[in-house]
Amino acid sequence: MSKLKVGILGATGFVGQRLITLLNNHPYFQVTVLAASKSSAGKTYEESIKGRWKLNLPMPDFVNNIMVKDVYNLDEIIKDVDFVFCAVNMPSNEIKELEELYAKADIPVISNNSANRWTEDVPMIIPEINNNHLDVIDAQRKRLGTQKGFIVTKPNCSIQSYVPAITALLEFKPTKILVCTYQAISGAGKIFSDWPEINDNAIPYISGEESKSEKEPLKIWGTVRNGKIVPATNPVISAQCIRVPVSDGHLAGVFVSFEKKPTKEQILEHWRNFKGKPQELKLPLAPKQFLTYFEQDDRPQTGLDRDIERGMGVSIGRLREDTLFDYKFVCLSHNTLRGAAGGSVLTAELLKAEGLL
What we know:
Layout: E1 4-9, H1 14-23, E2 29-36, H2 45-48, E3 69-70, H3 74-78, E4 83-86, H4 92-104, E5 109-111, H5 137-144, E6 151-153, H6 163-167, E7 174-183, H7 209-220, E8 223-225, E9 228-230, E10 236-243, E11 250-258, H8 264-273, H9 277-281, E12 291-294, H10 302-305, E13 314-321, E14 327-333, H11 337-353
Parallel strand pairs: 1-2, 1-4, 2-3, 4-5, 5-6, 7-10, 12-13
Antiparallel strand pairs: 7-11, 8-9, 11-14, 13-14
């Protein structure tokens, strides 16, 4: 089976670097184009990234001598790719325009950016949860005037710790959720040497994060209607997001009330058995156990548990009844794997399995 040819837009950034490591020797995909800003274009990837490789994994050898292209050089890029991942660092309006340029050139776009998350016919996908939202792609193609091109986005990394745990319990009709997230510095594209101010510190503000945490789950839980995704109206969500001095991993303290309050045993059973299309299809990056519950009082811990299921699983712990809400618990996910690059690659695997790539 020949592999699909992949381009990475924003290949020199943090998420772009993660994508490169995940696509190295991937069974379905082969990286053929690396693209970035004009300042990096015309250099080999090794030259363009010198002194800026941020991961604790070595840079794969296969990218060393690939010449970096300008993301706006569409004619040169699209002839060498079947689809692209977009992880550029640009103003939102410019990202939206760039992604539509590629889609209208009949190149599918899998976006790590927020620019198109609220476009009504653009799916915002957590592959285990709302793969049915891919049904709107036909309507999006009609709007864009394309045969193959479309845009799919992933949601904000902070919601992917707790939204899967709540999704497993939707039959009990959650009515209100309070969530406090404690987010790693890699979510800001930083490592500790970049950001000395974060050492021995916590910052109680992340621009735009709380609004995304309160609204994006409702689109994930929405329904497809007349070629558009109509967000859910419940539950009501209140979020507070804090940057903390850890390298990777977003931790969430979750409080939830239900219309039909489940027992603790029912909740644990639903978490244990919850799976989605990626598990059924046994996709390469899919975690075998999507949700893992820890019985120990002091788990999950960011340093110990963020890499569960190769960083693609979600960890949960400390389930107990609450004095104001029905229950409270703690969730953890790896923000640059499950939350960003890994989630995008898993989405690409799902799109291929569904015949959309």
